[in-house]
User: What shape does this take?
Amino acid sequence: MKSEANVPLKSDHKLITIRDVARLAGVSPITASRALNKSHLVKPETRQKVEAAAAELKFIGNSAAGSLSNKRSNIVGIIVPTLSNSIFADTIQSITSRLMPEGFQALIGSNEYCLQREEDIIRTFISHRADALILTGNIHSKVAEELIEQYRIPTVEIWNISERSKHISVGMSNYQAAFEMTSFLISRGYEKIGYIGGPLENNDRSQDRMQGYRDALEKHDWSFDPALTRESPLEFASGGAAMQSLLSKSQSIDCVFASSDIIAFGALMECHRNEIKVPRDIALAGFDNTAIGAIFSPALTTISVPRQRIGLKAAEITLKLIRGETDINRRNDLGFDLKIRETT
Amino acid sequence: MKSEANVPLKSDHKLITIRDVARLAGVSPITASRALNKSHLVKPETRQKVEAAAAELKFIGNSAAGSLSNKRSNIVGIIVPTLSNSIFADTIQSITSRLMPEGFQALIGSNEYCLQREEDIIRTFISHRADALILTGNIHSKVAEELIEQYRIPTVEIWNISERSKHISVGMSNYQAAFEMTSFLISRGYEKIGYIGGPLENNDRSQDRMQGYRDALEKHDWSFDPALTRESPLEFASGGAAMQSLLSKSQSIDCVFASSDIIAFGALMECHRNEIKVPRDIALAGFDNTAIGAIFSPALTTISVPRQRIGLKAAEITLKLIRGETDINRRNDLGFDLKIRETT
DNA sequence: TTGATTAATGATACCGATAACATTCAGGTG
DNA sequence: CACCTGAATGTTATCGGTATCATTAATCAA
Assistant: This one.
């Protein structure tokens, strides 16, 4: 007799297997399996018997056994930098709502902007033999790339389009968007345009946005002045602090481009608190077109990113990759829109 | 010969198995397995050989095979209503950061406030033989409850504590919190307190908050007036619209309690747009204590919910359940705080 | 010395589904 | 009518780990 204490609850409890279903339906296990999966190989009448038996027993197949046998897990691993930012939540939401009806389950991981964590997550995803990966951005650890290579996991990158990308990518050019916004601000007549960007480290979106800002300035024969830029975590309060710092160090600034609506909104609130009128005293532009930017008055000028469409397209490409289809573009640029509103 | 086209990429590619590792290390597969999992059963020297072999081959075990064999999946299923609301993102984040180091992988699903979807998600979680479930709230479909029962999945409910709960729960009393906030507003001297709540359907938090508001009124011998209440989706704009509706229909209102910071902030912005001074013209209180409430001036009075601690505690209880430990409280009330700030 | 005990490892079987191959049987064909 | 074809179903083996039960060698008490 075994020890009673400290034994997992599920100890001796027997679960329903497909054999039980088959027995009840009066067929062999494999026929039951076929009836539940690829019913066209089975007489409709048989299929109904099996389905009835499965329903009666409340049978739920063991997907571990299934994927061990047929070598696909029906799992897609998704990695985003963080769940706290609603822009990624939107993308995940649209990926999963496309994948679930096709019978796939999404594993979601957030790397918290850390390459090592991403690598660990990829390792777990591979241990589950994910059929495909969807990663945010195109910067990954060397080992992560090697693992993806060795285990031959079809991989899609989302949220940025750039030459660096080694994988299929779906998104928009963050560089181009920042370039155009900056150009717009210049054309609007602002004369000293500051920049508050998100953390640059291991973040290609941040890096490309920054570069877009720089290149736009230089294209218009302005010089890039690091003193007019700040790096800020993606939090309201930090955006406010960065704004304050810019304003105090350089009074003559008349416009600030923030590389994220969160930062921009924090900055806007900072202005509001100090009774600095936007855009009269200073103009402000954001990036991402999140809900927050639209509700304040003045409404935030920003860049609209097709985050749902990115998710949808990424999901569709993922399905194609899994199914071995080959009509896939390596770069899927879904574009962006300048949303000119009241803060500029 | 088989058809060439339309065959999944991974077709004939052989993956590393534990047998390969064992061969390279010069031991049997089972010893390799032990070395990688429960190293205390293996001579340190042997373990090192195996680890070296595994590293050399970049071996990543197949967790489907593992869980099929030893009957635990090391998967915990988490269901939240939505990913778009950062409060749930925070909870998920703290759950996963506690579970991952213990070797568990979280499966995350969002039911979009729909019981049927939740049931479907639970079904997939069970198909992966999740070791435990963490569900938000205590309203689930009948079938969902039956499945949890039949498959004996240890289940923890988060975010609300109430008598209704059939499972172990971790959170705070939404009823109590709303009751106290309303009582506070009454004690503050407001005379006509409106209420904007989130959708009530299938949402025990919303229902309990509403009831807390009602009961607090009645305890102070006020009558509950449905004309002073609105139901609003959890979006800034809807909160604003509900506020507008309240203001236009009932000018004499001097305070509004919104059952979520998102709604409250939308309402606050509505006031801002219409140059209604808060709290001079009207007071406003929210619920959840999200970052957004703190950045505007006036800062939002709200209820602070220990969302990280909820996640952490839920994760810890989940681990205990999985390990068959029995020193577990059925109700884990982590409390709340009234955050009195400037809008009241 | 010897049986008992423990540490380290191995052989085999099994988890639960399904792939691969085999079988059966009905219907069509020359 | 022998033969083929294909639809429907079954038998067996297998996926890749690990539980279970041996086995071996080393340690130890009597």
